[in-house]
Each structure stands twice: as structure tokens, then as C-alpha cells.
Amino acid sequence: MSLKINYLDKKKPSIKNKAIFVQQNIKISEFKGEFEDKINQKILNLIKQNKNLKENKIFSINQDFNSKIIVIFLSRSNNELEFEKLGANFYDYLKKNDVHDIYIKLPQFKSVRNENLNYFSCFIHGLKLKSYEFNLYKSKKNNKIVNVNIHKSDLSLKAKKLDAILKGINFTKDLVSEPGNILHPDEYAKRLSKLKKIGLKVTIYDEKKLKQMGCNALIGVGQGSIRGSYLVTMEWNGDKSKSKPLAFVGKGVCFDTGGISLKPAKFMEDMTYDMAGSAVVAGLMKNFAIRKAKINAVGVVGLVENMPGGNAQRPGDIVKSYNGKTIEVLNTDAEGRLVLADALAFTEKKFKPKFIIDLATLTGAIIVALGSEHAGLFSNNDKLSEQLHKTGIKVDEKVWRLPLNKNYDKLMDSKNADMQNINYVGGASSITAAQFLQRFVTKNTPWAHLDIAGMAFSKYAGALNSGGATGYGVRLLNKLVEDHYE
Predict the structure, then answer these.
(1) Are residues 257 and 390 in the same domain?
(2) What is the spatial distance between Cα 332 and Cα 220, in angstroms, rounded to a whole number?
(3) Would you say residue 464 has pLDDT above 60?
(4) Are residues 92 and 219 in the same domain?
């Protein structure tokens, strides 16, 4: 089933199904001429029955045997996020009740018209977010269309920004949803290259260039695969002042078998989403370009496939990373941190950014700690951490900060190299992984690491997504930039 938004010229279209918004303090006279008196009375009764409603709710009134009036009842307090969630609930309601054609009347808020339109734009945005489906490989598709009709003047300027975010999120979801045999590193690099068309400067460093650069930690992860390994940079220059860029770095392990340290077979199919961190960076950069964000930003992703094979990296191998530090690989399934090690060091040295935020489905331990409610946040900077925490609450993409401390370093020190890639003593798995990454940010650059292993993919539907790839991170980082850096 797909969603189609139709933008109308007529204020009173001849569409039988209609949706209206009501509040406790709305006057029924506002609907005079809109419906028959008996329908107006039913709406009035609903308002009286729900005068103390503490949450938004959707009701349905049958106008006749083949048309409905859907009443969207608003509680006393709402914000943009609540309207996005309400729009998502509305889409679920239409699907459940088999309503395929409906006209939505702009809500009669008491507030000024601009805020009115912003809220309505958020409502439509939530509806669009919830309608996402990935059915590319289904031979039998549900061809039903949900037609939602609105007046074209009822959306605010904010709607254009929200559509840019939507395109970025859906790009992220599409990438995460692709199977590993389709979206391997070679194909992934090609898809990112196409972002040049929307104004991003895309540079692809292939294996030959990576060897010359000394990115041996990243190369080592992918050397067991027949596919190539890549570092891809995506630059957006929207600030003519030539200010330092904001840097976003993503782990792009297109499929993770664990390598020689092979994972159990059960649930290994989920490892197609081990590239979700890189997909968030790609979707975020696409959003910046579409909405022409007034910032300079760079996205850097390491793309590899972690496979066992005759040329695969072995436990006990020692590799020299981009910044010259040596790593003893004790477990080839702790591969994401090796990819990020080179990507972080490269990003800091080449771009000298204002900050670096990296995203990765890095550890299963973060799911044990935080479940699917919060991403793990680790940082060397209190200000950046506080900004991420507060922004996460605003957009319902929450983060929770965990500690970093030099005392954890001894768990990652190696007898044979500068460090080892796993803590074999046990405990603090997510923390020691972040502590490992911190060693590759060496120039006092504000840095935050988001472990999104519990957030990137859901087998169940969420408030604003339909299950599967969630697109977590695009809204969070876009809002962070909007509120603090743009």
C-alpha cells in the first residue's frame, strides 16, 4: 500500500471522506455549512465527552453508508513532535479502516496562522514517515493507494525542510533495507557517487588509494571478501565564509559474518544492517544538499564486507592504522572499530572539522544496556553531549551518555602492539569500544560516538516508522545542526 498526497486548489472539494481537527474549546459554529446539523451535533457530543482528554485521539463518524467524518481530537498541549506522531497514527488509522480517499481540513487552532501551518506540516510529515515501505523484492505487491487530499496553501515553508529530511531518511532506510548480495561495497560506492547530482562533492578512495594512504585497519576488515573496500567522502559547502566543516563519520560494514571469528548462524541475516551508521551519514548529507543548509559539512563512510576466506584477516594479526598506531586484532568480529579508526583519523587530519560525530552499530552490549530506547553516547566534550541529549528528546531519537575514562584504557592495551581491538578481561564492552575509538581523535577535536546498534533496525513498528529500518539519526543530527550550528 502506498501513500499519495494530492494538493488541491478548491477549498471545498467533492471528496466524501473528510478529516477535521477539534479541540476542547472549539466552537461548533466553526463547522456551520461544513456538515449537516446531525453530524455537527455528533461532533459536539464528542467534544463534550472528551473535554478532559489528556492525549490526542482519533474518532470516526459515519456520515452515510460509504463516507466517514474522521475527527482528530487534540489534547490541551501539543508540540511539533506530537503532531508528527499524530500524523503517523492517522496513517495507521486509514490503513486499518480501509479508507483510501480523504480530504483533511486545516485545523482551527487559536494560535497565529504561521504556527497553525507549521503544526499541520508536521502532521503531514508524520503521515509520510509512517507510510514508508520496502517491498522492492516482492513479486506480489499491494497496489492500493491511500489518497490524502489537502489544500496546497495549507502547508508552511517548514514543509520544504521536512520533505528534505524525509528524502534523507528514506534514502537511509532504503540503504539499510537492501540485502547484502545487492548492496555490497562496490554497489554502495556507486550509489553514493550519484549524490553528485544534488550538489555534493563525492570522492571515492578505492583499495589502491587506501593502501597508499596507510588505511590498513579498514583494508584488513575487507580483505577476505571478493568485493572492494572504500572510504567515501561527501562534502556540502553551504556556508560561503569557509568555516570549519561539521564532520559525520559512519561505519559501513555491508555484511558482517564476523570473519574468521565467525558469528553464530542464528540471526546472522540481520547483519545486512551493520552499515546503518554509514547510511545515516549518507541520508543526512542528502538532506543538507536538498534543503541547501547554510553550513559546511562532510560525511565520511568506510565501506567493507567482513567475510571469511583464504585471504581473510586472522585473529592475532597486527595492522598499522592511518595515524600510525598499531592494532592487534584479537577478534575479527570486532571489525567496526577498525573501520572507524582509519575513518576518524583521516577525517580529523584532512578536514580539521569543528566537531566529529560518528555513528555505528558497534556493540551488542549497548542493546543489553539500553535496549531500543536510547542510543549509547560517548564523548570527549560536555557541550556537544548536552546538545545531543536535548536534541534527542525534541525529535524522539534519544541518546544516553555513558562514561569514558583513562582507567578503561588498560583493558585495550596490547602486549604486542599499541592496542588490541577487544577487551578479553570482560565487561564494559561498549565503553571499551568507544575508548578504543577515542585514541584516533588526537587533536582535541570535540567528538561524540553514537552506538546505534539497538536503534537502527526494529522488527516492530515504532511511533514514526513502520518497522524494519528506522532511519534513526537523520532527524537527530539535522535538528542538532538547525538549532546550534546553522
Answers:
(1) yes
(2) 9
(3) yes
(4) no
> 315-366 pLDDT, tens per residue?
999 999 999 999 999 999 999 999 999 999 999 999 999 999 999 999 999 9
Q: Measured at the alpha carbon of residue 145, what is the angle toward residues 140 and 150, in degrees to the nearest 5?
A: 160
| In a shared domain, residues 128 and 172 | no
**Angle CA 103–26–31, to nearest 5:** 45
Options 130, 337, 475, 479, the catalytic residue: 337
Contact (Cβ atoms closer than 8 angstroms) between residue 53 and residue 73: yes
Which residues form the domain of 360?
A: 162-484
* Coil, strand or helix at 271: helix
Backbone angles phi, psi at 451, to 5 degrees: -90, 105
CA 383 – CA 437 distance, rounded (Å): 19
What DSSP designation does 296 have?
E
Strands (E), 307-425: 317-320, 326-329, 355-360, 375-379, 399-401, 419-420
Euclidean distance between CA atoms 380 and 288, whole angstroms: 26
Active site residue 439: no
CB-CB contact of 355 with 445 (8 Å):
yes
Considering the candidates 57, 158, 244, 263, report the single residue annotated as catalytic: 263
Q: 52-70, pLDDT tens digit by residue?
A: 777 888 998 888 778 899 9
Q: Reply yes or no on whether 337 is catalytic.
A: yes
What ranges in 79-157 are assigned the alpha helix state H?
A: 80-96, 113-130
Q: What pLDDT does 261 receive?
A: 98
Contacts of residue 116, defined as CB under 8 A and 6 or more positions apart, other chains included, come to 106, 107, 109
CATH number at 152 reads 3.40.220.10
Say what the pTM is: 0.95
Contact 216, 343 (CB under 8 A): no
Amino acid letter, residue 126: G
Same domain, yes or no: 222 and 115 = no
Classify residue 427 as left (phi > 0), alpha (psi -120 to 50) or beta.
left
What is the number of structural domains in the chain? 2
